[in-house]
Every structure is written in structure tokens, then in C-alpha cells.
């Protein structure tokens, strides 16, 4: 028997010639359709020097068109050609021979040529062996580890991460989302481990060939896409949850972190039950496991029945995790469990419509968290947070549509970005608000029922929602959801609505155009038209509860914006305010008189009658419009003056997000002193109202006030407001004086980021080393991230350089998935910025190899550069650097483009606005 080993996707394949294939399309041929997989995987975790797996897969498939080729995906797998078999299921004895095999590395194709034609309508069984090392790259079937504190030994485990296209790294398969099929998974492993997969265990029996090994067979799954298959071999323990609907629910973690699973074990079942009511469909599987993985590239992954998480996204410690950490755990769990319906039960046909998964899960998660923890008021926080992100990202010409063409596998991962998640969620919220709850729910339920266990695209969703909107009379019959929503999902960007009032006639003329940060792009070139639901209220009404549209801005059949006039508006002494509760993704620019009427109410009137989200909106709109020159900075800065009266979280969040962008530029100029004094003056009233850094959290009833105090404390210490810095240092010194600092920490949990960073910034190398030791000794992921971000706050150049070196040296204790937090902490430090920039540019080849193949993680190192570069010379230098190092920035094309565009808009701002802002700030200090 001739033995031919193939390392698929390798160019040096033993005995195999890589001929130019006649088939070179990036999608699989459509001649075959998988009906069922039997997957057997034997995992070896005993020898740390030889962590590997081997197995075989039986694929039952139907032939849809006559063919002499079988093409499927396989990457970096060793395949013994001589052991591949193919038989006709209708004739058990008939086996087929192969005339050859071919590898097409560009598309990860493994092609088998059959000696005779396979006939349409027939069902065949293909059996293939495979083997590979458990890789270190956090994708496919890979290794992870943790340190056992009792024995001080490394414990190994295996886990999968297949989304978007990495099942092919674990076994040969049809690795596209629309090739759904049931799976029977059987795992082989040493008996001291656990085996987990999507389904419950069916049978465990001894491995007859390897002593102390067992085979664990799982029940057959429902039809699933390959990217949702999951399995793990580990020595974890679990916390069970009790569910009245009989779904087995378990939460898994390494044994020395199992006590941190209590919160997740409580939240998960509650959210699952809410979704069953919301969607009108019971959770389709008999069990669900959620598991915290020490090394995990994604935040979490929604594998059907076996949801995987980074530790920070699942584990919660009441002694170490802040309210923000707790909210993140609830939000991520709610997101992943929403996927069990949106993404798993109904899956997009192709990655073009990834947003149907991610946008929906993001939006529905906010409903789920709000349902189980209404006291957090998290729905408003999430909505505003998403809007603030998208207003920035989608104002770049280099942004992209929510639904975008994907023509290469390496383009898929770029779509897992803020446009798919946050913009997708934002336009769904908009639709929910203009449709109303009944019609929105009805449309969603019909869509899920119609396409259960199948695949869909966004037009299918629009059909279900249009039907419901007309049934509940939420939309006129002449309107349909597709026409409205295509304007939001198929084109890039969002509009600015310009409102010019005729005060004597009681009317207003509205126009729209795309809002762009790059002011070099002429208005005539901006184009675009959006169907905009117009909600608004007046000074007399002040009705912010009604978010439904009173009118629409419409587009012609050719996509041109139609003029819009609104009448019946109040006279010259009353303001109007558009976009009630920011229900829609657009910016509003009023005429100067209307702005001044609004500012007068904020500064002198009953400002709290304006909805808190709309107060945040006015701040954001005014500062954006000033940034790009649509408004004078005097108006924006006058509006900000009202913040001395503001006591709510959302407006302050909006203000700080915008002020941070100005600070990133002005902080590197001679006028920073005045900016600092201006911020001190602005922050003092709210800092004193919240009792500074004093530990008053137990007395705070409204939970978002905890977030406000945390955020204000952070800014107050940065700008040395009142007693902030000495108070933080006193807390830190008290911690350092503790005899057992790893067991007792007197720093208030919600202030730890501020206290650590402030004390490291104003401290010495002994303070730094103390915190680094706490990092290495910590057993809580949230605490470790807080420390990582704080260590970068030092102003000691040698310590910053030392920290950068530690960041990319895994043996020092910073896991690859966390390296970006350390790097960003240095790069956002005004002293560390240039050090980090030089380090990145000098070591780009090394950094690329460090992250490869998950280059998305490398792109997260770029925001500090884009946000703090504002000199033409620095922009030119970085642009030249990008041109010269294309090979080490492969896969980051979108991120690089957006980085350069953001730098350019900063250069424009410095040239246009720096002088005016400096004058405005000086005048406000002297008031």
C-alpha cells in the first residue's frame, strides 16, 4: 500500500504536484451537499512536548449534479491518501477509486478526483483520516493551559474555535455556513479528563487499544453549520443551574476558579428563559454548557450547546470585579445565548450577512440584560454607547456597509467589527422603535419559525417584518421594510439632517447628506440618501416618551433625497428637538437661533425635562459639528457649560468621549495647561457632588451613578482635581502596607482602575513592581486586566520600555489575548505614545508573527496611533511606513485605511480649529 501523507495547505507536499486548478472560485462547488457527519477525534494531552490529535470523519453526502470531483476544505491537516474511502450507500459493496488529489492553498480546498462519475440523486459515504498538532494559534482545534496552584504544574486542555472558517483546521469538511448537517461527535481521551461537545453524552466506553483511554460518544446533533461545532477535553469542574423547562445548564471553569462561576450560572438560565418567551421558540437542544477558557482569542463564541468564553467574559468575583465588569459578564452571556436562535437556529447563507448574527445578538442582548437587571438602566447605556462608537467609525469614508460583499475567506474576519455589531444593533433598535413592540416581535418570531434549522439572508428578514408591520398598521401600506432598511444596511455611513426654521411661518426645511469627518471631501461628492423616521418634540410639548415617527424623510426610486418641509412648529421663542431618545442614527444641525434656545434651557431652565439621552445627543452633535466646521466652537463650548448642573451618567459619558478626542491633540501642545484648567473647572462640581474618591458606593441607589462616580473619579485624577491624586495614593499605600496584599485589598472595587493608574503615574518603580507582582499572583481575569491597563500609566521611560518588552513575551505571564491591553495602556500614555509608536514600527515583523494568523488582534494596537497623531509630518511618516511594510500588515488593510483617515482628520482639525478652541477655553477659564 502506497503511503502518501499530505499536509494540506502546505506548498511542500510529499509526492504531490500542485497543478493549476481549473476550479479557482473562492466558494465550494455546489455539486455535493453533506447529509451527516460522524466525527471521531483522539486527543493526546499527557506529553507537553507532543500535544496532538488524530481521527477520522465519515461524511454522508448527496450528489446534486453529476461530478467526478469531491471538493471540501482542509487546512494544515496531515491526511493519509491511502486510507480515504468512498462507497455508494445504495450498493454497500461498491467502492470507488481515486485518480488523484489536489490542494488549492488559496482557498484551503482539498480536491479528490474520482475514477468514475458520481451520479446526481445518489448518496455516498466518504471516510477520511486526519492528524495534526494542537496548535498555539487560538483557532481550529488548539491547546490552552493554566497553572495548578496546589502542584505548581501546568495543566493542559484542548478547545475549538471554528468561526468563521477554522473547522477545516480540525477535520476535512464543507466549511461554509449554508452546508448544515447533523453531527455525531466521538471524543477519545485519557479517563482523568472530561469530554464536552454540543450535545449530551450518549455513551462512554473503554478504548480497546490505548490503556486508560476512553471513547465518549455524544448524541446526534440538530443540523448545524460547521463553524458552530465545538468540543473540548479538559479537567474542569462545573456549577449546575436548575431550570424549570428541563434544559440541563452547566457553567465550567478551571477548578481554582469555579467559585467565580456563581453569577454566570445564575444569569444564563434567566436570559435563556426570557429568549424563549421573546422568540416564541423553546431552546432547541437538551442541554447547554458555558465554559471559561484561559486562552481565547474571541470575547466569546456561541457554539450551539457549548458556548465558549474568555475568562473575563464569564467569570465574576464579588471581591475583585467592578460593576462594569459584572455588566460586561451579563451582556456577553446574553449576547451568546441570543445567538442560539439568531445565528444557530437560523444562520446567514453567507458571511455577507454576518450582521444578521452579530447585530441581532447585540441588540437582543441589551433587551435581555434590561429584563433581568432593570435597575442598571443598561438599555440606555448600551444604546448611547453603540451610537457614540458608530458616529465615529461610520463617519470615515473608509467605513463599509453593514451588509458587505465577501469574496475571500481572509475578508470574513474584517467583518467582525463595530459596523456589524454596534451599527447592526443600532439600526435594529431604530426599526423596533418605529415599528412598535408588537409588530417587531411578531415579525421576528415569524422569521425564526420560517427559517428554523436553515439559512436566510436579510431580504428574508425584511419580508417577515414588512408583513408584521402592515398587519399591525405600524407602517403605511405604501412603505416596506426593505426599501427603508436597505438604505441603512447597503450603503456606508449615516446622514446629517440640516434643519432650517422659518420662525414666522412655523415651519422647517430639512435636508440630508452623508456626514464625514474628512472635510476635504466636497459636499457634492458625499451623496447618499436614507429613509429617516423623524421623531421630534418642542419646548411646549417636551414629550420624549413618543419615539415613533411624526414624519419621514424619503428617497426617490433613483436614490435621491426628497425635500422635506415640516409645518405646525412653534414660534421664535421655543426650541424644537429632533430624534427623540436618539431613536435613529443621524446627526442634527439646527440654525443658530434654535441652538441658542436649547442652550438657554440647559444653562438657565429646567434642563432635566429634556430626556437624558437627548442631553447626551446635544453634546455629541454640537461637538461633532464644531469638529468638522459645520458649527462654531463657541456654540459647542457654551453648551458644555451646562454640565456644571448635570448629575447623570449619559451626558457626562458623551462629553468625556468628545473631550478625550480634543485632549489627544491639545495635550501635546503648549495650550494643554489651559485645557487642563478648563477641565478642572468643569469637573469640580460633579466630583464634589459624588463625594470625590470617598467610598460611598454602599449608599448609591441608582446603579448608573456607580458608573458615573467611577468615570468622574478617573478624569478628576487625570487632571488633578481637588484631592483626587492624594486620596488615590493613600488608598494604594494602604494596600501596599497590607501584610497579605493578595488576600486583602482596601481599595474600593469600582475605583481600582483609577487608584492603580494614578498611583503608578505619580509613583516610583517600587510601586510599579508591587502591582506587577499582584498581576502575576491574581486568579481573577477582570482584576488582571485592570492591572494590565494601570501598569502602562507610569511616566518612567525605562519602565514603559520594559513593559512593552514584557507584553510580547508570553513566558512573562501576559497571555496573547491580553497583550493589546498592555500595549494600548502604554500607547495612550502621553510619554508612552512615542515609545509605543517607535516600538511598533521597529518591530512590526515580529509583532505580525506574534499574532499571525489572527491579524484582527494586531489591528487593535492601532487606535492609539490614529487618535493621537495630528502633525502632517507624523502622518506622512506613518503612511510611508505602511507602504514599506505591507507584507507585515497583511490582513489589516481595512484597519490601516481607517487609521490613516483618522490621522488625516486630526491634521485637518489642528489646522482649522486649534486656535479657535484655545481662545474659547481661555475665555471660559476667566469667567
UniProtKB/TrEMBL annotation:
Free-text remark on how the cofactor is bound: Binds 1 zinc ion per subunit.
Cofactor dependency: Zn(2+)
Signal sequence region: 1-19
Keyword terms of this UniProt record: Aminopeptidase, Cell membrane, Disulfide bond, Glycoprotein, GPI-anchor, Hydrolase, Lipoprotein, Membrane, Metal-binding, Metalloprotease, Protease, Signal, Transmembrane, Transmembrane helix, Zinc
Cellular component GO terms, alphabetical: cytoplasm; extracellular space; plasma membrane; side of membrane
Binding site residues for Zn(2+): 335, 339, 358
Swiss-Prot/TrEMBL site (Transition state stabilizer) positions: 421
Domain Peptidase M1 membrane alanine aminopeptidase: 263-488
Main location: membrane
GO biological process: peptide catabolic process; proteolysis
Catalytic residue list: 336 (proton acceptor)
Class of enzymatic activity (EC top level): hydrolase
SUPFAM superfamilies: Leukotriene A4 hydrolase N-terminal domain (SSF63737), Metalloproteases ('zincins'), catalytic domain (SSF55486)
Annotated membrane topology: Lipid-anchor; GPI-anchor; Single-pass membrane protein
Residues in Aminopeptidase N-like N-terminal domain copies: 34-228
Record's subcellular location: Cell membrane; Membrane
One term of GO molecular function: zinc ion binding
Coiled coil segments of this chain: none
Acyltransferase among keywords: no
Family from the record: Belongs to the peptidase M1 family.
Protein name per the record: Aminopeptidase
Amino acid at each position: 500500500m502506497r503511503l502518501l501523507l499530505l499536509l494540506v495547505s502546505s506548498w511542500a507536499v510529499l509526492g504531490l504536484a500542485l497543478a493549476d486548478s481549473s476550479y479557482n472560485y473562492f466558494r465550494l462547488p455546489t455539486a455535493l451537499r453533506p447529509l451527516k457527519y460522524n466525527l471521531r477525534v483522539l486527543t493526546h494531552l499527557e506529553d507537553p512536548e507532543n500535544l496532538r490529535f488524530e481521527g477520522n470523519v465519515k461524511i454522508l453526502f448527496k450528489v446534486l449534479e453529476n461530478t467526478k470531483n469531491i471538493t471540501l476544505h482542509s487546512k494544515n491537516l496531515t491526511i493519509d491518501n491511502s486510507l480515504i474511502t468512498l462507497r455508494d450507500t445504495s450498493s454497500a459493496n461498491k467502492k470507488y477509486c481515486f485518480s488523484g488529489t489536489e490542494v488549492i492553498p488559496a482557498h484551503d480546498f482539498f480536491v479528490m478526483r474520482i475514477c468514475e462519475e458520481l451520479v446526481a440523486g445518489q448518496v455516498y459515504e466518504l471516510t477520511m483520516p486526519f492528524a495534526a498538532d494542537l496548535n498555539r494559534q487560538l483557532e481550529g482545534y488548539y491547546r490552552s493551559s493554566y497553572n495548578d496552584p496546589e502542584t505548581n504544574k501546568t495543566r493542559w486542555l484542548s478547545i475549538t474555535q471554528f468561526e468563521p472558517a477554522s473547522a477545516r483546521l480540525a477535520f476535512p469538511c464543507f466549511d461554509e455556513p449554508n452546508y448544515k448537517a447533523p453531527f455525531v461527535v466521538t471524543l477519545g481521551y485519557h479517563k482523568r479528563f472530561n469530554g464536552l461537545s454540543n450535545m449530551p453524552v450518549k455513551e462512554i466506553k473503554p478504548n480497546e487499544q490505548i490503556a486508560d483511554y476512553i471513547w465518549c460518544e455524544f448524541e446526534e446533533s440538530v443540523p448545524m453549520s460547521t463553524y458552530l461545532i465545538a468540543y473540548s477535553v479538559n479537567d474542569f469542574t462545573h456549577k449546575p443551574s436548575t431550570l424549570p423547562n428541563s434544559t440541563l445548564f452547566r457553567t465550567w471553569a478551571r477548578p481554582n476558579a469555579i467559585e467565580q462561576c456563581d453569577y454566570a450560572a445564575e444569569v444564563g438560565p434567566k436570559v435563556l428563559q426570557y429568549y424563549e418567551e421573546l422568540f416564541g421558540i423553546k431552546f432547541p437542544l437538551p442541554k447547554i454548557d458555558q465554559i471559561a477558557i484561559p486562552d481565547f482569542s474571541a470575547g466569546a463564541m456561541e457554539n450551539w450547546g457549548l458556548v465558549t468564553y474568555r475568562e473575563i467574559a464569564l467569570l465574576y468575583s464579588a471581591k475583585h470585579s467592578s460593576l462594569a465588569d459584572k455588566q460586561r459578564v451579563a451582556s456577553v452571556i446574553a449576547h451568546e445565548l441570543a445567538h442560539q436562535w439568531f445565528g444557530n437556529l437560523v444562520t446567514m447563507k453567507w458571511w455577507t450577512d454576518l450582521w444578521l448574527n452579530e447585530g441581532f445578538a447585540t441588540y437582543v442582548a441589551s433587551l435581555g440584560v434590561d429584563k433581568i437587571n432593570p435597575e442598571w438602566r443598561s438599555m440606555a447605556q448600551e444604546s448611547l454607547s453603540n451610537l457614540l462608537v458608530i458616529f465615529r467609525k461610520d463617519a470615515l469614508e473608509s467605513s463599509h456597509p453593514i451588509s458587505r460583499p465577501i469574496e475571500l475567506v481572509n475578508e470574513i474576519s474584517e467583518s467582525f467589527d463595530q459596523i456589524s455589531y454596534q451599527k447592526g444593533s443600532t439600526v435594529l433598535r431604530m426599526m423596533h422603535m418605529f415599528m412598535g413592540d408588537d409588530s417587531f416581535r411578531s415579525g421576528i418570531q415569524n422569521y425564526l419559525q420560517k427559517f428554523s434549522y436553515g439559512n436566510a439572508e436579510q431580504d428574508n428578514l425584511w419580508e417577515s417584518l414588512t408583513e408584521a408591520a402592515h398587519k399591525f398598521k405600524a407602517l403605511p401600506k405604501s412603505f416596506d421594510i426593505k426599501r427603508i432598511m436597505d438604505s441603512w444596511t447597503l450603503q456606508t455611513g449615516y446622514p446629517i439632517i440640516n434643519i432650517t426654521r422659518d420662525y414666522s411661518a412655523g415651519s422647517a426645511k430639512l435636508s440630508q447628506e452623508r456626514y464625514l469627518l474628512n472635510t476635504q471631501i466636497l459636499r457634492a461628492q458625499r451623496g447618499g440618501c436614507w429613509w429617516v423616521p423623524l421623531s421630534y418634540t418642542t419646548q411646549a410639548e417636551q414629550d420624549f416618551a413618543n419615539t415613533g415617527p411624526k414624519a419621514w424623510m424619503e428617497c426617490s426610486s433613483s436614490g435621491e433625497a426628497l425635500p422635506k418641509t415640516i409645518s405646525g412648529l412653534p414660534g421664535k421663542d421655543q426650541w424644537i428637538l429632533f430624534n427623540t431618545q436618539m431613536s435613529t442614527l443621524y446627526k442634527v444641525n439646527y440654525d443658530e437661533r434654535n441652538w441658542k434656545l436649547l442652550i438657554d434651557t440647559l444653562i438657565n431652565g429646567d434642563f432635566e425635562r429634556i430626556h437624558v439621552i437627548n442631553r447626551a445627543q446635544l453634546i455629541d452633535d454640537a461637538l461633532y459639528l464644531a469638529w468638522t466646521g459645520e458649527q462654531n466652537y463657541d456654540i459647542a463650548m457654551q453648551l458644555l457649560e451646562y454640565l456644571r448642573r448635570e448629575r447623570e451618567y449619559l451626558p457626562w459619558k458623551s462629553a468625556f468621549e468628545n473631550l478625550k478626542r480634543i485632549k489627544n491633540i491639545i495635550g501635546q501642545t503648549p495650550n494643554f495647561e489651559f485645557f487642563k484648567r478648563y477641565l478642572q473647572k468643569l469637573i469640580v462640581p460633579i466630583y464634589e457632588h459624588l463625594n470625590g474618591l470617598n467610598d460611598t458606593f454602599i449608599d448609591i441607589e441608582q446603579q448608573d451613578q456607580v458608573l458615573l462616580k467611577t468615570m468622574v473619579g478617573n478624569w478628576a485624577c487625570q487632571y488633578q482635581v481637588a484631592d483626587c491624586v492624594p486620596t488615590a495614593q493613600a488608598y494604594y499605600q494602604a494596600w501596599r502596607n497590607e501584610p497579605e496584599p493578595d488576600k486583602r485589598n482596601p481599595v474600593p472595587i469600582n475605583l481600582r482602575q483609577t487608584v492603580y493608574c494614578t498611583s503608578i503615574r505619580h509613583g516610583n518603580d517600587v510601586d510599579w513592581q508591587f502591582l506587577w507582582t499582584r498581576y502575576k499572583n491574581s486568579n481573577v481575569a477582570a482584576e488582571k486586566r485592570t492591572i494590565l491597563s494601570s501598569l502602562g500609566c507610569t511616566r518612567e521611560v525605562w519602565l514603559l520600555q520594559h513593559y512593552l518588552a514584557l507584553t510580547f513575551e508570553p513566558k512573562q505571564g501576559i497571555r496573547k489575548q491580553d497583550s493589546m491591553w498592555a500595549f494600548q495602556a502604554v500607547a495612550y500614555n502621553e510619554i508612552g505614545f512615542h515609545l509605543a509608536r517607535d516600538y511598533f514600527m521597529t518591530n512590526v515583523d515580529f509583532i505580525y508573527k506574534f499574532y499571525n494568523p489572527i491579524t484582527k488582534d494586531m489591528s487593535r494596537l492601532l487606535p492609539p496611533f490614529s487618535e493621537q497623531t495630528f502633525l502632517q509630518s507624523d502622518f506622512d511618516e506613518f503612511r510611508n511606513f505602511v507602504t514599506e511594510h505591507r507584507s507585515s500588515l497583511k490582513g489589516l488593510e481595512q484597519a490601516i485605511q481607517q487609521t490613516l483617515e483618522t490621522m488625516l482628520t486630526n491634521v485637518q482639525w489642528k489646522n482649522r480649529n486649534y486656535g479657535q478652541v484655545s481662545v474659547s477655553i481661555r475665555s471660559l477659564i476667566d469667567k
